[in-house]
Amino acid sequence: MASRDVVSYDTPLSRALKVLAGLFLALYLVWTLLPFFVMFVSSFKDLLEAFKLPAVGDWAGITVFFEFTPTFKHYTSLFTENSFGTYILNSLIAAGGSAVISVIFGSLAAYSLSRVDFRGKQDLFFWIISTRMAPVVAVMVPLYAIFRSLDLVGTLPGLILAYTTFNLPFAIWILKGFFDNVPFAIEEAQMVDGSTRFQAFRSILPLVAPGIGAFVVLCILFAWNDFLFAAIIGSGGAKTLPVATRELVQPQNIQWGSIMAAGVVTTAPMMLLGLVIRKYLVTGLTMGAVKE
Questions:
Q1: Can you tell me the distance from the alpha carbon of 279 to that of 276, in angstroms, rounded to the nearest whole number?
Q2: Considering 45, 71, 97, which residue would you say is the last residue of a domain?
Q3: pLDDT (0 to 100) of residue 102
Q4: What is the pLDDT of residues 2-34, one digit of tens each?
Q5: What is the pTM of this model?
Q6: By three-state DSSP, how is residue 254 classified?
Q7: Nearest-5° Cα angle at 116, 110 to 117
Q8: Which of 13, 72, 173, 228 has the most Cβ atoms closer than 10 angstroms to its Cβ?
Q9: Residues 160/98, Cβ–Cβ less than 8 Å
Q10: Are residues 57 and 82 in the same domain?
């Protein structure tokens, strides 16, 4: 039997590329995580300690950044003086409500577009996704006028409806790809056994559950981090965390400690959510990417 030469890929060029890739990832992690680290540490500092900086070029003096007495007064102030508990609840209701409504109606519409053929189907699908392409500022004025006439400005139902306006087309577009990847034979077998179309639809939902879960997370992230809708549509009675944080910046006083604490309160839940479901998020986002 003729021997085969073993090809080695461990060349100087490949080793150099691995080192460069490692350096790039390390720099990217520092660039990404350093602002969050500074924000987190500064939220426990007094105002004077937060602005202690070493002299320019004095790298040994970087330890001054860690020389402080921890205090929780900024977090206490958020919840006792600035009603951040109410704003967290508003953010949860607005983000969760919009995600649930978008998933329910979006999955029904996406399933219909995936399984039913009719004239103008592609044009309708393009029109649906084109509404998501419009800049938020372009539709804010007419939306505000409509919501004001319906007395929805400054209310949580109005804010949920505003988020759903942009989340629903996205839901239909994303979820249709998931349903396209499920073989129609599964539903045919269900209907042959006497199931209705809706029962057959429900039977395949577990197969697209990772995709639906990934979309729910994206909807929650969009609504949780939104500022423009919350500032205009939700102004007053439906104030959310980003708007409440912005109001800590006042002409006569900028509450840096409270702003840092508010930043931690705003970002920590979403970062924790992403870490907990990262495995399912990747699985869901890659569903429908490969056509069988």
A1: 8
A2: 71
A3: 92
A4: 545 555 566 877 888 888 999 999 999 999 888
A5: 0.80
A6: strand
A7: 120
A8: 173
A9: yes
A10: no
Task: Name the domain boundary from 30, 46, 71.
Answer: 71
In a domain, 5, yes or no: no
Per DSSP, helices labelled H in the chain are 12-42, 47-50, 73-80, 84-115, 121-133, 136-149, 156-180, 184-192, 197-204, 209-225, 228-232, 241-246, 256-276, 278-285
Q: In 3D, which of 163, 8, 146 has the Cα closest to residue 95?
A: 163
What DSSP element (H or E) covers 249?
Answer: strand 249-250
3-state secondary structure of 226: coil
Range of the domain at 17: 12-71
Whether residues 88 and 144 share a domain: the answer is yes
Residues contacting residue 110 through CB under 8 Å, at least 6 positions apart: 171, 172, 173, 174, 175, 176, 178, 179
Domain match, 22 and 79 both: no
Is 2 domain-assigned?
no
Per-residue pLDDT for 216 more than 90?
Answer: no
Which pLDDT tens digit goes with each residue over 58-93?
666 677 777 788 888 889 988 888 888 899 999 999
| Residue 52 covered by a domain | yes
Question: Which residues pair with residue 250 across a beta bridge?
Answer: 253
CA–CA dist 256, 248 (Å, integer): 8
pLDDT at 27: 93
Compute the Cα dihedral for 20, 21, 24, 25 and give only its sign.
Answer: negative
- The torsion angle over the Cα atoms of residues 54, 58, 63 and 66, rounded to 10 degrees, is 30
Identify which of 169, 145, 174, 146 has the alpha carbon closest to the alpha carbon of residue 281: 174
Let me know whether 110 and 255 are in one domain.
yes
Number of domains in the chain: 2
Spatial CA neighbour of 98 closest among 219, 209, 230, 214: 219
Residue 14, classed as helix, strand or coil, is helix
